[in-house]
Amino acid sequence: MATETTSSFSAVGKRVGRIEGAAKVTGKTKYAFDIQIRGMLHAKILRSPIGHGRIKRIDTSKAKAYPGVHAVFTAADLSKELDTNPNERVLTLLAQEEVLYHGQPIAAVLSVDPSVAEEAMDLIELELEELPAVVEPLAAMRPDSPLVRSDVGEVDRSEEQAHLTISTEAAKEQTGSTNVTQRVSYTRGDIEAGFAEADVIVENQWRASWVHQGYLENHVAVVDCDVNGDYTVWTGTQGPFRVREELSRLLQIPEGKINVEVVEMGGGFGGKNRPFDSALAAALAHEVRRPVKIVLSRSEDLRAGNPAPQAVISLKTGAAKDGRLVALQAGPGRI
Predict the structure, then answer these.
(1) What are the residues whose beta carbons fall under 8 Å from the beta carbon of 309, sequence distance 6 or more?
(2) Is the pLDDT of residue 175 over 50?
(3) What residues contact residue 115 under an 8 Å CB cut-off, 6+ apart?
(4) What pLDDT is recorded for position 333?
(5) Do strands 169-172 and 182-185 pair parallel, antiparallel, or not at all (unpaired)?
(6) Distance, CA of 47 to CA of 221 (rounded, Å)
(7) Domain 32-133+213-304 homologous superfamily, CATH
């Protein structure tokens, strides 16, 4: 029987045009930034200029009085109907008493003109008491390390739930540094028996630096709330169902009342899974009952776009002479 060549296939070995290619190069593709809705307000966010601090005073009166400003919100101005939660970063929305990272949202200014909102944002008077900031993982684990944040009683595990598909064993930390709140273990097989079988054991520690995904499109979210209390969200996201789920918790409404329109995304690479900006835009839309748009600048995205954090990893590997890996043990870096 003659050998079949690739020329007999319709796709294998053939050039295949990108389905979305023509629309992109002709400018017809719509990104979240392109969404325009009648009556839409632009939100500009006042962000923390320090890595850790306590909010001593915040005065928004001058910003509220600035011509063209529709509204100004701090955490104290958000209604109790919203299920905000300082234990979870997505549901924190605006810092309340303590800022925990450089770039954390503190206040939002709304206007039909984004330039007006940005000008008014500069009129907000903010007084912060700077607290020690810990930015090195191993230093944070030391018993004498300053606290990364005040004790809030719970640990935010939503990021873990967004990525894991296997069961884990978790235990709240009882001893050691107060910054180590929880340890999560993943086990499979008998690790000690595996190392006993190994002819060679290699052990070392590696460090992964803080890194931004470098996508071309910054974070953008547009949220509209209609007269029936139904919400429509336009955002370039890698996790539309996660957006709907978390906004349902925030707004305390059924998921069926939230429609996430997944527009074209200008890159993500794992950096657009969580609805930080969509949550804040949804909360503001809930307050003003008008469409709200949040567009992060490149500077804001680099500071607060939820990039990949740094990590220090210890790895111990056991191998047999025939090349088989018989044991693998990974854990946090050693102090």
Answers:
(1) 210
(2) no
(3) none
(4) 84
(5) antiparallel
(6) 17
(7) Aldehyde oxidase/xanthine dehydrogenase, a/b hammerhead (3.90.1170.50)
Q: Which residues pair with 328 in a beta bridge?
A: 317
pTM more than 0.90: no
| Residue ranges of domains in the chain | 32-133+213-304
Which residues neighbour 316 within 8 Å (Cβ) at sequence distance 6 or greater? Answer: 195, 201, 202, 203, 327, 328, 329, 330
- pLDDT single digits (tens) 86-114: 888 899 999 999 999 999 999 999 999 99
The count of residues in the chain is 335
DSSP string, 273-331: SS-HHHHHHHHHHHHHTS-EEEE--HHHHHHHS--BPPEEEEEEEEE-TTS-EEEEEEE
In terms of average pLDDT, the best of 1-15, 138-152, 310-324 is: 310-324
Strand-pair partners of 69: 111
Report the 3 state secondary structure along 90-157: HHHCCCCCEECCCCCEEEEEEECCHHHHHHHHCCCEEEEEECCCCCCHHHHCCCCCCCCCCCCCCCCC
